[in-house]
Amino acid sequence: MGIDGITEAAKRSGDLSRQMLHTVFGEVVNNPFSPSGDGLLNNVFFTVNEVIAILALVYMGIISIKKLHQAGQLGSFIEGDGNNAFKIVKTTFGWLLLVPTVVGWSVAQLLFLWCGSIIGVGSANVIADKTASELASGKAVYIAPVMPEMASVAKGMFETNLCALGVNQGIAQMEASGQHYENNARMQYQTGDSTYSISVNNGSAVCGTVSLPQRPAGWTSIFASGYADSVYSVQQQATDTLWGKMKTAAEQFNAAYMAKMRSGDGELPDVESAIQTAARDYQLQVQHAANSAAGDDEIVQKMESDIKEKGWLYLGVYYHTLATANTEMKDVANLKPVVSGMSNDGDIGSIDYFKGLFQAYHSQLKNSNYTPPLGTESNALARNIDQKSLENAATTGDGTSLITKIFDFNVTNWLATSNYGTGDGYSDVTNPLLKMKAIGDYTLGVAEVGLASWTAINVAVKVSEGKSLPGFAAGMMNKLTGIRDAIAGVLESVSFLVYPLFYSLFGIGLALSIWLPFIPMIYWFVAMADWLVTLMTGVLASSLWAATHINIGQSNDERSTYGYVFLIDVMIRPMLMVMGFIFASLAIVALGTALNMMFKFAMEQVQSDSFTGLLSSIGFLMLYARLCTGMVARVFALPARMPNYVINWIGQKMNDSVLGDMQNHVHDIFAAFGRGAKNMNRNNPKQFNPDAGVDKSKDGIKGA
After folding, report:
1. Which interval of the chain is the signal sequence (predicted)?
2. Could you tell me if residue 373 is inside a domain?
């Protein structure tokens, strides 16, 4: 990637940022040295540059007079220091930057505009394009935990290969010591002819098998044969790749174990890391194939197309796609490879080497230093290793000796019981923005149903009090039972609470369902406005920056430094905005998952020995919701704040966001529902003169 690639990425006809710059600055964005006469900035800038040039000449004259006076007093026009030549060059450079061009802009202004419209826009487009391409190729924005079932499959494959290596090496050691053993006792690898299957056995004992049904069960007729064939083909390739990785990992572990036995030194490789990584690659590959075949990745493809056509600014529109792309594992659940471990019967020859190999493997697995991503079950791979005797381990294979069937569960039940909107559906990974969005949708639904039910009850009571036939029948029933009066009394008693409650529910639901999901886009728009204002400020101030280079014989060399920091800002701000958006998308998942893990224990500590009823539960829910919404609102400010953080690190540059409080203004619209509910009293207006003996026609001051 060179300057040509960045320039090409910047000069897209449909790029939104370039179109914005063209609207503001005119044709000079596309043709810097070709006057077109469009807009008013060209002539205005020409006048501004004239004024600045005159001021620079006056300043230069003052310096010259001062230096002439100095020469008369000291006999030297310029102090004798090593920077004199550089000061002359710097001053000349400043005058060159002040030279107006045919379009009325100075060279300094064109330099700032070029840096912003080419370097800034082009670098941001390159990064945004790469992000969209990675998502379209099947990668997720964050590292998702491996499905426990998939980790079990990879672990079973590893142990199958390790079993074969242990048995064969044990027989080899027997033969090396002079003991004769049957040749067919060695484990052999066999593949199926008509169906995909791998079996590792010696005709008597079995180390394990891997198989795929010809047509995976559970795929109903709603899937076309093309879909099934394409996904099944990818599944075969992915299974081959996974098997190869686990076979290589087992060979490396066996080689390290043998070397350690011979020399007593050495370190065994990290088995869990190899298993987890290979399993993750498998599930991502199969899920991507399922999404592509079913058309579920159309939104990701559209995001890639829009970003590559309309530019980096469209990245902020696609947060939901960015957050959920390639994370759902529901389609992988429909695929059912089967892995079996060692059989309990059969002849495996000498078990001494086999026992030692598996003992080392179990020890290494239990003491693994592998750090999984958030949401992974703790010690999941080592959990099923119990403390059996070595002899039992040798005959049963330990670990996954029983048949392990993966993905064999009710998908409908999973869909019904999954924590919708939080993550991949299989782990504890939580995206608080998506979770609060789902809660907001449910809250709005509850509020709408509740208000409709409350209205229906009130209408029914009013009808029962009328003179219609239903009212007459209800009146007769009321005379016998008094049920109508009882219902009316209950409604009148609780009505002062019901309407404010509904009002608050609607406010909370709208805030969580509408406002919260728009926070990424709101802050992205704030960052976009800051970028445009920064570029406009740089273009306007660039002529003054050029004038600060004029300092022959002066010692204030730092006056132009701020302009260089501003120039860097103009070039890298779009790129930093894109990176800030990506980091926000990653941080929100990490923080949301950590919050879920910590909040449960914190709640147990607070309420360890007490429970105050329904209100305490509502209070915890409100606290959790507020933590999530506050987290989302702060984290997604990164696209607007990260450029300022980085630029401040480079140089002390003051930053003031033009639309920094926009998010608060939008939030206040929804918060108005809650504030209005505080003063709402529908059926019981407040009585300022409750004394029944007071004449309410009076003003309340003079009395009756």
Report:
1. none
2. yes
